Amino acid sequence: MQGSGPEGSPSKATLACIAQSLGNLLDMMYREPARWSYTFQTFSFMSRLKVQLEPFPKKLLQAKKPVQIFERYIFAKNLFENGSLSDIEWHIYQDWHSFLLQEFASQLTLHGFIYLQATPQVCLKRLYRRAREEEKGIELAYLQQLHGQHEAWLVHKTTKLHFETLLNIPVLVLDVSDDFSEEVTKQEELMRKVDTFVKNL
């Protein structure tokens, strides 16, 4: 099949095309959030779902239990609360989101969350340093909203969750506000915490 790699997997060209489309769509969403937020969140979720349904790399499977990352209660919820998603879009999003996660529940088992915690100010500086074209328009206020969503869900546990399996999933919070890219000792400390967390799941 055209555009596919071995055993029907996407080719590098196809993956590159998807990445390009996602980048363009992200830029469109930031420019016109009320127009493109639902489209972006749909595409983003489906892309993540496809990745999570793929077999884990052998190296990752060497861990006692692999850690998977789950998204719904941050970006989409924030877009609804700031008015970028309408009531009907939010309702439809939640409906098919819940259906798909329940349908593939056996393949999407969650064991734990690793929350890389940094202040919105630090995140903004790192965005500027990363210098992605589609992220140029991101403002501090938006990052503060996302930070609040992360804190409410993963730290304060005040976010209303719709899946019982999420209620008691352990969370490892790592403070990464300080730049540790050149600090080997700090890197090793963080990795020890991750290793201990994964082994105890």
UniProtKB/TrEMBL annotation:
Chemical reaction(s) catalysed: 2'-deoxyguanosine + ATP = dGMP + ADP + H(+); 2'-deoxyadenosine + ATP = dAMP + ADP + H(+)
Binding-site positions, ATP: 126-130, 178-180
One CC-aspect GO term: mitochondrion
Sorted UniProt keywords: ATP-binding, Kinase, Nucleotide-binding, Transferase
Domain of life: Eukaryota
Pfam assignment, any one: dNK
Domain Deoxynucleoside kinase: 23-199
GO molecular function annotations of the record: ATP binding; deoxyadenosine kinase activity; deoxyguanosine kinase activity
UniProt-annotated catalytic positions: 71
Subunit structure: Homodimer.
Protein family (similarity comment): Belongs to the DCK/DGK family.
Record's protein name: Deoxyguanosine kinase, mitochondrial isoform X3
Lineage: Eukaryota, Metazoa, Chordata, Craniata, Vertebrata
